[in-house]
Amino acid sequence: MKTKLAALAAAGMMVAAPALADLVVPNLSYRTGAYGANGTQYADGFNDYFTLLNERDGGIGGERIQVPECETAYNTEKGVECYEATKAEGLVYNPLSTGITYQLIPKVGVDKKVLYTPGYGRTSAKNGKVFEWVFNAPANYWDGASVAVKHLLDVNGGSLEGKKIALVYHNSAYGKEPIRTLQDLAEKHGFTLIELPVDAPGQEQKSQWLQIRRDKPDHVIMYGWGVMNQAAIQEAANINFPMENFIGIWWSGSDIDVLPIGAKADGYKSLAFHGVGTDYPLYEDMQKYVIEPGKASQGGQHVGSVLYSRGMYASLVIAEAIAKAQELAGTSKINGEQLREGFEALEITPERLAELGLPDFGPEIEMTCANHGGSGMARVQQWDANAKKWNLITEFTEPDQDILNPLIAEDSEAYAKEAGITPRDCN
Amino acid sequence: MFYREAGDFKTTYRDDSQTFPIRLDRIGYYVILAVAVLVVPFVINDYWASAVLLPFLIYAIAAIGLNILTGYAGQVSLGTGGFMAVGAYAVYKLMTSFPEVSVVIHILLAGGITALVGIAFGLPSLRIKGFYLAVATLAAQFFLVWLFNKVPWFYNYSASGQINAPTRTVLGWAVTGPAASPAAKYLICLAFVIFSAWVARNLTRGMVGRKWMAIRDMDIAAEIIGVNPLNAKMTAFGISSFFVGIAGALLFAVYLGAAEVTEAFGINKSFLVLFMVIIGGLGSIFGSFAGAAFLVLLPVLLKNVLVGALGWPTDLAAYIELMIVGALIIFFLIVEPHGLARLWLLAKEKLRLWPFPH
């Protein structure tokens, strides 16, 4: 039986990897599993932007982009399998999972592939001296925590002295990331931090909200993902927690998080590092070249939603980096190393965004050898339950770099020591 | 005809009680072993190592461990994921605290630590059995995962609670960390698989194994004929956890390289290994391998056929894959409740008689 299975498996794997000649950007997506509802929308946006480039411009620099999908179900073992299955041709990886990112960080350095983790992954990967192959612009978890606290400072007249802030977080690597930053910020601004972990996937959080009702924090910050967001917003509505004092990270701020709660979710806030909706000139092209010819991923059912826009934004940054790499390398057929050069020289100015048909869509991105995380700027958006749309209520805000930089240096140095990496010289 | 024992005479008890009494089986076993050790390491690539062979070998060790406890000793356990986590965190702490000691020793020590934890959680088995014991071990699963997530000492106070395996070498070859070659990772796992299967096979056909089976078949009768239940049950829990701990250590250090306890060692792992044991065959070492192969290789094969060859959408393929694996599990449980190992035995019986069934 064992040999028979092995023979079958061998037969199956012979036909596995299709021969690919173009530039390959694998999409390690998840459309099933506990977070499938979120992963689907992101994957659609990721695919559609490259489809648009292929259809409208014939790819990037004359090279068509192939986006083979591989289903990870947010599972690290499947993520590793997907990475190994595609790495022969793949240039850059964006697994949309902090767990898989941690898995891949050591591997990409050896295989010379770029790991691009916008808004998630390992925060201290911002330090390009240690994490040569990882990029997490435009913002990371610690930026998010700092921008959220800055917003709370603004709404509290500049002082959080004596206030209580609760952090409701996904009890995993992802949710734990901001704790250290928030502890330092609590010390700096004099507020008390209450930490409330919620176990994955997150439907069960009655006791956490009971504690919130008892402790009466002035504000709640949430680091959730998937069904945990809906459950939390519903629980907050149940205990009549004022929604405008409830602020989520960008992963807790999509349409599907608030729509099921209905009118009671009105006023809920979340961070955002990109615009949403279809009121951008780019969508005319998208309509013409992708949606109408029926080439949109899954028929384009999620176009314009928050997570679709985020997937699209991720491909936009990758596409810009590919173009930059082609320019620097002087060839259109680039490899992983050249793409990394492209990422390190990447500059996306507001003018460039407008040129791409997405004016004021994201923050300005400027990456260097030492800074792989950009400026870290983010905005705050607020849910309007009647109009069923997110409204941006602040401008792009810069996080508190005085707090973040020492933390990033500390964490990346610890990693370098553990992994035996000598930080490179970036001058 | 194809598979016969004519001329294969046994004249001593020693011959009669060997693991592979039929010569063809014996030769087959040596051939497989030779191919695994002498051929595979030279042709293996990253994909085969990381997606197919490493998980197969590591889950085979875990399945052997659980099979000792559930298949041979009859103690139902749902704590496998938790015990694997103990192995993983033990090896992580040992690797980072004593970097100069060989990782092989660390993995064995991690198995030993898991054995102690397993014995501690096995103590209730003296008073309770069956479903009640399953619930007690389920508590171990949740408690251990919670503990490793809660106490920062276990993950060396890293910001995210993830653990990362640093590079460690055996005889100058890196076996953990990103620089490890697929062949080195494969060989270290293979060595532990051969060691585990050899130890387990010999334990189960000796006095210890007979005591376990006596307890499994009827504990009161076993006690009357002089089997000490405390001794038998605790050795079963200890040895089972030892193998499960080794599997957890290898899963984290060699295969994944980084792990997050809730995701990598959750309740799903316990179920996965339990299904491997049930499908492979309770109380069979070969069954542990067959079950691990079935549940590790089949999904990868289906994915490659459905997405790679037929070009189906990945989500549809993932659902179909779940349905096919689920249906096959039900099919096997109905047609052959004793698992793949029993099917294999039946096939061998038939082949020995073929073409004259009577």
Automatic annotation (TrEMBL), chain A:
Residues 1-21 form the signal peptide. Residues 25-386 form the Leucine-binding protein domain. Keywords: Signal. It holds the Pfam family Peripla_BP_6. Belongs to the leucine-binding protein family. PANTHER family: BLR6548 PROTEIN (PTHR47235:SF1). This is ABC transporter permease. It comes from Paracoccus jeotgali. The lineage of its organism: Bacteria, Pseudomonadati, Pseudomonadota, Alphaproteobacteria, Rhodobacterales.
From TrEMBL, chain B:
CDD domains: TM_PBP1_LivM_like. Keywords: Cell membrane, Membrane, Transmembrane, Transmembrane helix. InterPro entries: ABC_transp_permease, LivM-like. GO terms for molecular function: branched-chain amino acid transmembrane transporter activity. The chain crosses the membrane at residues 27-44, 50-69, 76-95, 101-123, 130-148, 183-200, 236-259, 271-296, 316-335. One of its GO terms (cellular component) is plasma membrane. It is a multi-pass membrane protein. Its main location: membrane. It is found in: Cell membrane. PANTHER family: ABC TRANSPORTER PERMEASE PROTEIN, HIGH-AFFINITY BRANCHED-CHAIN AMINO ACID TRANSPORT SYSTEM PERMEASE. This is Branched-chain amino acid ABC transporter permease.
